[in-house]
Every structure is written in C-alpha cells, then in structure tokens.
Amino acid sequence: MALPQRMTMARPLLPGGFDAGVRQERFQLPALGASVAAARRRVRSRVPVWGFCEDVCDAAELVMSELFTNALVHTGSEQILCVLRAEARRTLYVEVADQGGGSAGPAPRQASAEDEGGRGLALVRAMAAAWGDRPGLNGGRVVWAQLTSLV
C-alpha cells in the first residue's frame, strides 16, 4: 500500500530532478550571464506550485538572481548548482553553490550612490528571514537564504 504523499520518505535527488515528496528542486546551470534569467525562471515555475504567495515568489526570484550573480562574478566557477527547498508552505530555502575560486565567503558592503553594483547582499538581507554561507564540496561555497511566508 502506498503512503500518502505527505508521509513519503525523502529520497536522494538526481541533479536537475524534482521530487514532489520532499518539495525540493536542484538544477545546475553554466556560469554565464544568460543563466541568471534561467535560474529566475526556474524559481518562478516552481515556487507558486508549492503554494507560496506572490510576495514570496517575487522575493525568491530576486534572491536567486543576486546569489547566482555573486557566484558568477566572484568565483571561477564553470557551473553553478541551485537548490530550492520548501517546508510546509511557510519556509522556502534558496541555495546557490559555486565551484570555488572566490573569497572565503560573501560579505555585504556599503555601495555609494555612484556604484553600479555592491547592493546584492543588502537586498538579500532585506528580503530574507535569515541568510548565510557554508563550505561546499571541493572548495566551493554554498550561500543560502531563508524566506518565510506569513500566510
């Protein structure tokens, strides 16, 4: 007899796969400027299906864009791994893993009015309930953000 979906045991995911039982999606994209838009589209196609409100979907898109862009600009990665993970329609995790080659970890900076960049992590900090980083595999970093729905 099959278990109801909410009681299904978590299974390992294949790269690029989606497993409705654990409400997690992993995808890997080349470290190219065009991949930022592809990552945003993946967020937009998955997060509403998981029942998150429009505000969380918008925030998740922005956070993914900023974290992906940082991995693209500040590391020597050829590929960037992205993970979306939902918990009970109240908490959404956005993670971006690079292959290394950058600094020890991300650090927000104060951008002047004339700077064209430097505001990404400040935006992430403003949108997320929590964020941080940890060592990834093979010398890379994983930068994550936790978004919370009030609904």
Main sheet specs:
6 strands, antiparallel
CATH topology: Heat Shock Protein 90
Report the CATH superfamily: Histidine kinase-like ATPase, C-terminal domain
SSE topology string: EEHHEEHEE
Q: From the helix content, strand content and strand pairing, which structural class follows?
A: alpha+beta
CATH architectural grouping: 2-Layer Sandwich
CA-based shape: globular
Number of strands: 6
The oligomerization state is: single chain
Compute the separation of the termini in Å: 34 Å
Cα gyration radius (Å): 16 Å
State the helicity in percent bands: 25-40%
Return the CATH class: Alpha Beta
Number of domains: 1
Low-confidence stretches: 1-16
Structure description:
This protein has a single domain (22-148), classed as Histidine kinase-like ATPase, C-terminal domain (Heat Shock Protein 90). The chain contains 3 helices and 6 strands. The chain has helices at residues 33-46, 54-74, 120-127, and strands at 18-19, 24-30, 79-87, 91-97, 130-135, 141-148. A hairpin with a 3-residue loop joins β3 and β4 (91-97). The longest helix is centred in the middle third of the chain and has 21 residues, at 54-74. Mean pLDDT is 80; it is low at 1-16.
Descriptors:
151 residues, alpha+beta, Heat Shock Protein 90, six-stranded antiparallel β-sheet, 3 helices, 6 strands, disordered N terminus
Secondary-structure map:
Elements: E1 18-19, E2 24-30, H1 33-46, H2 54-74, E3 79-87, E4 91-97, H3 120-127, E5 130-135, E6 141-148
Antiparallel strand pairs: 1-2, 2-3, 3-4, 4-6, 5-6
InterPro entries: Anti-sigma-factor_SerPK, HATPase_C_sf, HATPase_dom
Keywords: Kinase, Serine/threonine-protein kinase, Transferase
Domain Histidine kinase/HSP90-like ATPase: 30-129
